[in-house]
UniProtKB/TrEMBL annotation:
GO terms for molecular function: fatty acyl-CoA hydrolase activity. It comes from Penicillium angulare. It holds the Pfam family 4HBT_2. This is Thioesterase. Transmembrane segments: none annotated. It comes from the Eukaryota.
């Protein structure tokens, strides 16, 4: 099963993307990472999740018919990545498609670019994407059904995964609290202040 957060693995940080003056990855490169991830995300949906509409999903990254156009991107840089490094890019669909996408021709993705070397986010992006009909030279009046159905399913899976992880976190917190109460946070516990 493919997870909702499809990702690019082992995307090398080539030396040519370094800022010569500072030795770190140039800020515009993060936008390229997000774009590459969005293209792979779209292709992976067609190849692995919705193969019955594979051609339509693959065409979304071209200008042959219905396609995707980045309307805006906001990037929050967390720290300067340096070569050598590898990144993983995660996307999350927002907001709930049943509340907003059914009558619109746009959607949004939250993106996290994770540095494998530092094991933390190097940047977070917010993409606003328009669904565009290249044959009519205009935005689509609404989200095409093949996209809308997959987005509804993605949203459902994201929400289920979110609840599952929240439950796991709560379980860990409860087990830690139980250990605290059984060991040092007891009513009869005496604090050891050391010797003078």
């Amino acid at each position: 099963m493919i997870t909702v957060s499809l990702r690019i693995r082992d995307f090398e940080v080539p030396s040519g993307t370094l800022s010569l003056s500072r030795g770190h990855v140039n800020n515009v490169t993060y936008v390229r990472y997000a774009e590459t991830a969005r293209v792979n995300w779209t292709r992976n949906i067609g190849l692995h999740i919705d193969p019955s509409n594979k051609t339509q999903w693959l065409n979304l990254v071209s200008s042959r018919g219905i396609g995707l156009i980045l309307r805006s991107i906001k990037v929050d840089y967390k720290f300067p990545m340096k070569s050598p490094d590898k990144i993983t890019v995660y996307q999350k669909l927002v907001p709930d498609p049943s509340s907003s996408l059914s009558s619109q021709s746009a959607f949004q993705l939250q993106v996290m670019i994770l540095s494998e070397a530092r094991q933390r986010p190097a940047a977070r992006c917010h993409e606003d994407i328009v669904i565009y009909d290249y044959k009519k030279n205009q935005k689509t009046p609404q989200t095409p059904p093949f996209i809308y159905e997959q987005f509804k399913n993605m949203w459902k899976l994201q929400e289920e995964a979110k609840k599952d992880w929240q439950d796991r976190i709560l379980d860990i917190e409860n087990r830690v609290r139980t250990l605290e109460v059984e060991s040092w946070d007891r009513a009869d516990a005496v604090e050891d202040t050391g010797s003078a």
